[in-house]
Amino acid sequence: MQDFEELDKSAKLLFAKHIKKFEALVPRRFLGGSNYTVENVGQGRIICKVEGETVYIVRMFQTHKEYEKWFRSGMP
């Protein structure tokens, strides 16, 4: 995943811990009327799409500012 590869080592570890949590607990906070959920990771965000028991990671943002820019652009 390109977003993950661009992160520094400490950020990768932090995001990896949260991704591992998805195995036990599916994210529940949905983005305004869409099929996407958001998981806060410190200042960063992980955007997921949940289909049944499967969680697809759509995007990862290291800062809230990057996430806001993506959200305002209309998302994918």
What are the salient characteristics of this protein?
34% helix, alpha+beta, 76 residues, single chain, 3 strands, globular, YaeB-like fold, three-stranded antiparallel beta sheet
Name the CATH superfamily classification. Answer: RelE-like
CATH architecture: 2-Layer Sandwich
- Run of helices and strands: HHEEEH
Sheet/helix structural class: alpha+beta
Number of distinct beta strands: 3
The coarse silhouette is: globular
What is the share of helical residues? 25-40%
- Tally the helices: what do you get? 3
Radius of gyration: 12 Å
Domain tally: 1
CATH topology: YaeB-like fold
Low-confidence stretches: none
The biggest beta sheet reads:
3 strands, antiparallel
Q: State the strand order across the main sheet.
A: 1-2-3
Distance between the termini: 16 Å
What is the class in the CATH system?
Alpha Beta
Q: Mean pLDDT score, rounded?
A: 76
Which band does the percent of strand residues land in? 25-35%
